[in-house]
Amino acid sequence: MNLDAIAAIATEYPERQSAILPALRLAQEEHGGWLPPEAIREVADALDLAPAQVEAVASFYDMLHLAPVGKHMVEVCTNLSCALVGAQQVLQAFEEQLGVAPGETSEDGRFTLRAIECAGGCGRAVVVVVDERYREPVRPEDVPGIVEELKRGD
Amino acid sequence: MSATELVTVTVDGREVHVPPGTGLVETALAAGVEIPVFCYEPRLGAAVGACRMCLCEIEGMPKLQAACTLTATNGMIVRTAQTSERAAEGQEATLEFILVNHPLDCPVCDKGGECPLQDLTFRWGPGNTRMTFPKRTFEKPIPISPAIALDRERCILCYRCTRFSESVAEDGQLVALNRGAESVIATFEDEPYLAPFSGNVIELCPVGALTSTQYRFEARPWEIQNVPTVCGLCPVGCNIQATTREGKVKRILSRNHPEVDEGWLCDKGRFAFTHLRARDRIADPLRRVRRRGFDVLSWDDALGEAAELLMQAQGRIVTALSGSETVEQAYALGRLMRAGLGAHTGVLPEETSPALDAFRLPLSAIRDAELEPVAERAPIVELWVKAARRQGAQVEQAGDALEGCRRLADKRNALGKSLRESERAILIWSGEEGAGGAHLAALAKELGFAGKPASGAFHLPCTPNGRGIADAWAAASDDEGPNPEPIGLLFVSGDEAAADPNVRALAERAERVIVNAMFQGLAVGWADLVLPGTSYLERDGTYVNLEGRLQRLRRAVIPPAPDELAWISKLAERFAVEVSPHASAVFAEVSERIYDGLPFGEVGEEAPLRTRSEAPAPQLPSEPAAEGKGLRLVRYRPLFSGPAVERVPELQFQRPAPEVELSPGDAGRRGIAPGETVTVTHNGTSLQLRARITKSLREGIVRIAAEHAGELGGTVEVAK
Prior knowledge:
Distance between the termini of chain B: 64 Å
Number of strands of chain A: 4
CATH architecture of the largest domain in chain A: 3-Layer(aba) Sandwich
Structural class of chain A: alpha+beta
Radius of gyration of chain B: 28 Å
Oligomer: heterodimer
């Protein structure tokens, strides 16, 4: 892993702890979208911290993953604004199309589906985040198209 | 502080005057009002307001406030739950919330009967529950180390333990994982919490979530007694409570002495007490018999045998002391050997110098210093140094201690110059070759510390009472005599002496050997007569710690054999020397000679530090250290070593691995990676050890724990 890059990040903060979050994002990118224990240990070593301190941060934030994720990450906002315009139905449509429950990864390892809290796109609810890009607004009938598009792209 | 500098706060209608900045919990206490708390603990740093138990109504603030996060300001009007219905309601709601998932298994919980959650629920809680649905459950108990068990169901997430790990011990190993309702206390990947001060989290836990595996299901609070005494396992002399039940020590708790330990203990002091019940503990006197090993003797026969051996030696006796004897014991032994038998030669594991008394300070002064060069590490002292660093003190490693002293004494040295200029500078020396603090005293004098009441110096000796014993042995007689050659009899007092290779070497030259030790492993094979030893938890008397503080040792439990003072007294009688078997009477005699007649009863529960006293100022030895090629080997005695630790199963995981510590620079030049097996060579002898890279180590120095260093010494070479 790119320890020098982490060391460089650390110099931008007054305290080493502050560099944990950006360092973890970098580590997650390099480890295929999630943080295995080795990745946490590497970040801890690079920042001269205990691995537990790094894991505490990694387990706190929703966008850092401590278990393997699929090639594609589909996240449906189910917070208030999205819920009012049918987020539950959108989520259900994805469940049917992908054959997984929220929080799970498909058996072929291609898709992970998650229900998330507010993604900050309330004006154009329902917000669906696909591989870190927003699709908005999404209606249940748009879901087959999105899934088809992702499968075609592979 | 004068009245003008105080602020006036009204708590529940009572006016109280406190210095500005006093915490509201303490302010209320000053007014005689208790604000209940769980997470609040000033020793852990800034308050976090995590548990919300301390909710109060403050005039001018619309919502209830967490009192622990506020400080006293002038004119503040506080209403606690005692007078404010809103605060009482809030507090009750908080407790109800805390208890939502708490199992209420108090009848089978170790904490039951001495549990803040139980007490506060009883006094402030709702009295009944509205919860009708199942509580959250976890796998339990989880061993977070061989010494500590974690029950996550009982945890109320006050974060005291994680704050200790993060901001007091600074090991960062115990953390809260996840978020909100999912939060749990954990270590990384369920690895054991491997840190020298881990046991403190047990005492900090305000519920039964973190418990001691040694104390689990061992006693209930109403059937125990807590004996206030001091720890005898290192020279810090932390104040402790020994919890006993039915004549056995069950656990060790801290007894906060704010100048010595601030209520923290190391894991050795906390968990090593089970060595009292070690399988090879000696309970009866033993006599070596040819081909048969040992015979058990009656005490009468043993004393007869001892007197015979002492007589036969005709004064050619050497007494090897451990440094863990009480002052009284060392004095009594001195009276017997020196006054009774004219045998004046005593051997201590290391020198002790009174010269440092001129620079005496309480250990707590380390925290308030601004500058401190440190050599190596020691328990508790390490926590004080960390506290100093957190407060902004500059902490420097002097590395090779004697060489470091010479460097600092040089007027051109930059750090030495800052030390001369600072009003609050502290020197700490740990490790051997310190001439008992004399080198450090010479440096402190050179730096002008004598006139600065907040600047001082600490020498960390390797024995708990080396200083007290040196003084007591010296006080036992005014006569002197030559060192005997050949040695007729070697008298080995205590386990540390019995385990000391130098003492073993002395025994080779002695015709006969008497060993006074606790454990068979230390006595068999070389002793002609073995007299059972006792532990610091089984003795009455006094210890002098590394500050020079005289502290009171209390007998917590009765030893399996008479204590040393009892039989030394009997033995002395045979040589027409009168020594009392009672610590108080012996102390009275010692005190007359060296402690200004201080009465035994006034040594005190929370002993004060004696004032600075002058002693002849030594000189720093001027000859430079022998230059050698290669790396200088520092053999150190790790915290978790010695006869007691070896006999405690819960501490085995803390013992040092067979490793050699290298600085990153030295490792890099030799192409050594962490964890690789390397060969350490000195004068043709070599050892295979695992390499460990320590960032804080100076270049040119390698460290190996004494128990893994074999015959190595001086300068060594390390290669793959």
